[in-house]
Write a structure and sequence with these properties.
It is built from 45 helices and 24 strands. It is α/β, with parallel strands linked by helices. Among the domains are: 224 residues, P-loop containing nucleotide triphosphate hydrolases (Rossmann fold, 3-Layer(aba) Sandwich), CATH 3.40.50; 135 residues, no CATH class; 165 residues, 3-Layer(aba) Sandwich (Rossmann fold), CATH 3.40.50.300. The strands form five sheets. Strands 1, 2, 3, 4, 5, 6 and 7 form a seven-stranded antiparallel beta sheet that branches. It has a seven-stranded parallel beta sheet with strand order 10-11-9-12-13-8-14, sandwiched between helices.
Length: 1112
């Protein structure tokens, strides 16, 4: 594997080894450098050429954080090619006296180094390198090189740092092993997940995409695709904070210093910037030691708040998530969602306190609404309520009618002999009939022994009956607890055993498997354990009843469920006044009962099977009503069959439809409140309160988190000090060695704290015993990839995590060294932004960037919440054409029509500029300079930018210069725009028809393959407003097979036809909402937010942008 990686690195090394002959490192061209005497003695007055060079230095310093200004001394001479190559380079610092308008330069003598091109020449000629600079000249002379040591030194902007990568790659090839992230980046194996144990705390607000990044980064190296304005810097700041919280070191890298400064600034909001250091200067060790000394004193003296972080936001988030889950549960109450139920309940014309244990579902009422109306209109509800659903499915209509009619006739005949009216009185007659039959058959057939006083069978029967009463009562009690449960499929005894076994297993994954298994049976995971306990109790009680039935059967009772109670009644009657009941009957009645015993038993069984009957039910009247309404019932029977038993039974309780609905609503609501007491008074406005609670708690907890980080560093700092003060006899051998290192390291640092110059380099400090103190006091590092190769030793495990920002601009080879020094890599960027510039290749050859490489070998998370643009229209074009429409943008209150197209009808493109358009744009610039908003001015070419500048008044030029100086404006050509952003973006297209009316469609950088990316970068800079000036329209463009040009044509369509017409409020999702001034009322908010974090993000961002959010 290592061989393959070495081959890959070798290929990269070969690709970048070719030095550009125009580079002043190769040839100190007098036109690009300055030669003079006594350059370090007298200050330079304004107007001298050195000032122009300093401006370039400042630009390089601002963009990359690297000081390119160097003094070159001693030259290698190639007379044939007229080339003179600097041998030694010394970085220069400069200071500007703005009051006097003077510039002063100073050497950083300890930072002198050999020109990297000379190193390359040594390698090319197989000359062994010399570490001592003074010996390099001798080596070159001995090898036949001609040196000029008398020539005057020169000053120039030498981009020497770029070539540090060459040495880095050469060293990498010689490594015995490669770090895990480096190997996986180059396609050698897949990185195994390993936990960093990052804490849940955050410093800055984070959306759901950010949270996914944290989860992934906690396990393995990862890619963050961060389109413009998606909070990438917040993600990285939070990630750095989490790493600090886990006692992990990190290094953040970017080619642009401003990106690093943004991260440092965000950390400074929490006082954590003291734990970080930006390494981009040649004088880094001096600045580092100064900050280390400050931290040393800080942690010696500071007293931190020890209040524990209760992380209430987690509890509030869980509560909000529970609310959303419940609101989104489609059958949360009565078969419908809670939201729909409450809306339905509020729509009812009648309320009631009546309650039934098993109410019909709301979906059933909705489904059978017209049927219920017809039933109540015809007065059929009572009759239908008595008929059991199985009766309707089991019997043919004619058979059913005949059966009811037959029983009605016979029961009326029975009425002629006996006075009874209710079902309970009819059952008493059956008992008498049974007793009469018993009296007639003195031997009592097979039950003789049961009636024999104190017989073994009688004692056994009476004991079992006592157990029977208790067992059935307990079973009924358990069953009543589960009447509200809605099963997808009720688990069997075997299923329950499987679920319990899975539940008893430890571990997160085991619990996930348990809930996944549970979803087969129920949609209520929150009360899974309660429902399992219910079924366990139910099956246990059923088993007890089943065993008793077996025991009764062993006594010869064929149908225990029907006969046990009657037999017990007879046995106990016989025990006392067994014949007294029969004595009340006439002989005729007694004879009738004896002969009717079989019919009465059949009637009991059949009617009980067919009808819902209670002891108080008037049985004859009920049968008469059913028989009398049978024809109408038959007509509705197919529809009635589709009603569930609960819906049918309620018909017998509710006298009218409104009452039917009211009882259903009250019953479901009562059961729901019993299951979820906290929701008894729930209102949609509660969601807003819960979200506010989360934001408020997180704001407080972020400060607590930062304090905890600093407190932890202090505790470790104190433990180091305590170790130094602990007698050796009390220490282990390992601690003794560590004490020795720490003592030496402290000595080194204390000595350096006292010095003002000639400090060891950062690399030397890391190589010394001071490393442990440095890593403790400075766990976060910021740099650019090339500076890393110069500053830090090439060692594995130097950092826990290497974080790359704007990685699309970092060549692949530039990132390898940092990854070799780290245990994990996080690579962030936007693949739709501009790629890196090659300093080694000529022409338009593309360079493979770090982000591109990582995207093919590491898992990737995309940030989709766009926060920069205060109106969705500002990001709409790029969102559609570059980001698949996945970006969610949030509108700000009061910002309408942000996109404005200005057509300059008299514009002419002549001599590579468009003066009329420049004059038009100059007027808008003049107005914009007077506002407090930051502005960006971009032209599609350098010539047009210069033309615009010439149209500005002297006053406007001064104002623009001030704005450029304080960073509230940028003034650039298209190809120079990258990473900038502003409130108000003003663009001049410039290109147009010539004096003869021809439109050439040659647009400089836009015609290249990267033109589309340039357009994307440009169009994603504005926060509030974009003014686009052009002298051509969409109709002037011809169709082109050049993707970039065709995309430009589509942009013209967008700018031209959108403009001021887009004034509506655009939420980041399709929603039912209304707007009244600055109040947005969002209906059914839970439908748009499955995750609590999404809900909080929406509300907090929208309210921060001037809206007041309400929910309904």
């Amino acid at each position: 594997m290592s061989k393959t990686i070495r081959n890959t690195i070798t290929q990269l090394l070969q690709e970048i080894r070719s030095f550009n002959k125009n580079d002043i490192l190769v040839h100190a061209d007098p036109s690009k450098t300055l030669e003079f005497e006594s350059l370090l003695i007298e200050p330079f007055a304004p107007g001298q050429p050195i000032w122009k060079m300093i401006k370039e230095t400042e630009k390089n310093l601002k963009e990359s954080g690297v000081n390119t200004l160097c003094l070159a001394e001693v030259y290698l001479i190639n007379d044939e090619k007229e080339i003179r190559t600097p041998l030694m380079l010394t970085p220069l610092t400069y200071s500007i006296d703005k009051l006097r308008g003077q510039l002063k330069l100073e050497k950083i003598e300890e930072a002198i180094f050999v020109n990297p091109y000379v190193d390359y020449l040594l390698d090319s000629n197989d000359i062994e390198k010399e570490t001592e600079i003074q010996n390099v000249a001798t080596l070159l002379q001995n090898a036949g090189f001609k040196l000029d040591m008398e020539a005057a030194p020169c000053i120039g902007n030498f981009h020497h740092h770029r070539y540090a990568i060459l040495r880095e790659l050469e060293q990498l090839i010689e490594q015995d092993e490669f770090s895990t992230p480096l190997a996986s980046l180059l396609g050698e194996g897949k990185e195994q997940a390993s936990q960093l144990n990052l804490p849940p705390d955050i410093l800055l607000p984070a959306d759901i995409d950010h949270a996914l990044v944290f989860d992934k980064a906690n396990e393995t190296s990862a890619v963050i695709q961060g389109p413009p304005g998606t909070g990438k810097s917040q993600v990285l700041t939070n990630l750095i904070g989490k790493l600090l919280g886990a006692n992990k070191s990190s290094i953040a890298l970017s080619e642009k210093r401003v990106a690093l400064e943004v991260l440092m600034q965000k950390l400074s909001e929490f006082g954590l910037d003291r734990l970080g250091f930006i390494v981009t200067s040649d004088n880094a060790s001096k600045e580092l030691l100064k900050q280390l000394e400050e931290n040393w004193h800080y942690f010696e003296q500071e007293k931190f708040d020890t209040t524990p972080n209760l992380r209430l936001s987690e509890q509030y988030t869980s509560q909000l998530q529970f609310s959303l889950d419940l609101l989104n549960q489609p059958d949360a109450i009565g078969g419908v969602s809670l939201y729909d139920f409450k809306a339905w309940m509020e729509s009812l014309s009648r309320q009631t306190n009546e309650y039934v244990g098993t109410p019909p579902s709301i979906t059933s009422i909705h489904e059978h609404e017209s049927l219920l109306q017809e039933i109540y209109a015809k007065g059929l509800q009572t009759s239908i309520a008595f008929i059991k659903p199985n009766t309707l499915n089991r019997y043919d209509f004619e058979v059913l009618h005949e059966t009811f009619a037959e029983f009605g006739t016979k029961l009326k005949a029975l009425k002629n002999k006996f006075e009874y009216a209710t079902w309970g009185e009819f059952i008493d007659l059956i008992r008498k009939a049974y007793l009469a039959q018993s009296k007639e058959n003195y031997e009592r057939k097979k039950y003789t022994d049961l009636f024999r006083r104190n017989s073994r069978k009688q004692k056994r029967f009476l004991k079992l009956h006592s157990q029977w009463i208790v067992a059935n009562a307990e079973l009924e009690q358990v069953q009543s607890k589960g009447r509200h449960i809605r099963w997808k499929k009720q688990p069997t005894r075997v299923d329950i055993a499987t679920l319990q076994a899975q539940r008893n297993k430890d571990g997160f994954l085991s619990q996930r498997r348990f809930y996944r298994l549970w979803k087969q049976y129920s949609d209520e995971p929150t009360i899974a354990y309660e429902q399992i306990k219910y079924l366990t109790d139910l099956y246990t009680k059923e088993d007890v009843v089943s065993q008793l039935i077996v025991d009764f059967c062993e006594l010869g009772i064929e149908n225990p469920r029907k006969e046990v109670d009657l037999l017990h009644h007879s046995v106990t009657v016989h025990e006392g006044t067994e014949w007294e009941i029969l004595d009340e009957l006439t002989n005729d009645q007694l004879d009738y009962l004896t002969k009717s015993h079989q019919f009465l038993g059949d009637a009991l069984r059949e009617l009980d099977k067919m009808l819902f009957l209670e002891e108080s039910t008037p049985i004859l009247d009920t049968l008469d009503a059913i028989i009398g309404q049978f024809s109408e019932l038959v007509a509705l029977l197919p529809k009635i069959k589709k009603m569930d038993s609960e819906a049918i039974q309620l018909l017998g309780i509710a006298s009218e439809l409104n009452s039917y609905k009211a009882i259903t609503a009250n019953s479901h609501w009562s059961q729901f409140r019993q299951r979820f007491p906290s929701f008894s008074e729930f209102q949609m406005s509660d969601l807003h309160t819960k979200s506010d609670d989360i934001v408020r708690s997180e704001n407080s907890e972020s400060q607590q988190f930062a304090t905890a980080i600093l407190r932890e560093v202090q505790q470790r700092f104190q433990s180091y000090q305590e170790l130094l003060n602990t007698p050796a006899r009390k220490l282990s051998e390992e601690d003794k060695e560590r004490k020795k290192r720490l003592r030496k390291g402290k000595s080194i640092l204390v000595k350096e704290f006292a010095k003002t110059r000639r400090h060891p380099t950062v690399r030397e400090l890391f190589a010394s015993e001071a490393r442990e103190w440095i890593q403790l006091l400075m766990p976060i590092w910021f740099s650019n990839p090339t500076q890393v190769s110069k500053v830090f030793p090439l060692e594995q495990d130097l950092f826990d995590v290497a974080i790359f920002d704007e990685a699309s601009q970092i060549p692949l080879q530039n990132g390898l060294g940092a990854l070799q020094r780290a245990n994990r890599g996080i690579i962030a960027g936007d693949s739709e932004q501009m790629g890196p510039t090659s300093y080694f290749k000529s022409g338009s050859s593309e360079v493979v960037d770090l982000l591109h490489q990582a995207s093919f070998h590491w898992s990737s998370n995309t940030l989709k919440h766009h926060y920069r643009s205060l109106h969705p229209e500002l990001i709409a074009f790029s969102n559609q054409h570059f980001y698949k429409g996945e970006l969610k943008a949030y509108p700000a209150f009061g910002i309408e029509a942000p996109l404005h197209h200005h057509f300059v009808s008299d514009g002419v493109f002549e001599d590579r500029k468009n003066i009329p358009e420049a004059k038009a744009i100059a007027k808008v610039i003049s107005q914009a300079l007077g506002s407090k908003e930051s502005i960006g001015i971009v032209a599609f070419s350098e010539e047009q930018l210069s033309c615009i500048h010439k149209q500005l008044s002297e006053k406007d030029v001064l104002l623009l210069n001030d704005r450029l100086e304080d960073g509230t404006a940028f003034f650039k050509a298209l190809e120079k725009v990258q990473g900038d952003e502003c409130d108000h973006l003003i663009i001049s297209f410039g290109y147009g028809k010539d004096t003869e009316g021809n439109f050439a469609m040659r647009f400089g950088p836009m015609n290249t393959e990267n033109g589309r990316r340039r357009l994307n970068v440009l169009l994603t800079r504005a926060r509030k407003r974009l003014d686009f000036f052009s002298s051509v329209t969409y109709d002037d463009f011809k169709l082109s097979d050049n993707e970039s040009i065709d995309l430009l044509r589509l942009w013209f369509a967008k700018a031209q036809f959108t403009g001021a017409n887009e004034t509506g409020i655009q939420l980041p999702f399709d929603a039912d909402f209304s707007v009244d001034k600055n109040v947005i009322t969002l209906r059914k908010p839970h439908k748009h937010f499955e995750q609590a974090r999404e809900f909080v993000t929406f509300q907090s961002v929208m309210e921060a942008r001037g809206w007041k959010i309400q929910y309904a």
